[in-house]
Design brief:
Largest sheet: 6 strands, antiparallel
Helix content: 25-40%
Strand content: 25-35%
Structural class: alpha+beta
Distance between the termini: 17 Å
């Protein structure tokens, strides 16, 4: 069943006041999602900011990712081209289409401007 279809994967930490470029954010997001798709959680965590690398956040991310793969979308296949939502000098937020065996969704990624675009927030709808 698709009981988790409406589940929202939401991980967040505070946003800093400088800026990460949309290109840097998109590169890190694609690398992270491709690593998640290979179940390479260590590689995925390297694209995240320090707070998202905390053990509790990693455990929650892995649990939710695996449940969504198992119960809803099937294996991850690829991501499309990123589009910029916000790039206002204080935050960078992008949308990234994702393709799975049993459907597609969109990831919204917010990057940390002080850590070369490290990911501070990941939302899958």
């Amino acid at each position: 069943m698709r009981k988790l279809l409406g589940t929202l994967l939401f991980l967040t930490v505070g946003i800093n006041a400088a800026q990460a470029t949309p290109a840097a954010c998109a590169t890190r997001a694609g690398t992270m999602l491709d690593a998640l798709g290979r179940n390479d959680y260590a590689a995925a965590s390297r694209e995240m900011g320090a707070p998202l690398q905390a053990a509790a956040q990693q455990k929650m991310l892995i649990s939710m990712w695996e449940a969504l793969i198992r119960n809803n979308w099937g294996p991850y296949r690829s991501h499309g081209e990123a589009s910029t939502i916000v790039d206002d000098g204080t935050i960078t937020k992008i949308k990234l289409p994702l393709q799975f065996d049993h459907g597609s969704t969109t990831a919204t990624i917010t990057c940390n401007p002080k850590e070369d675009g490290a990911i501070d927030e990941l939302v899958l709808l």
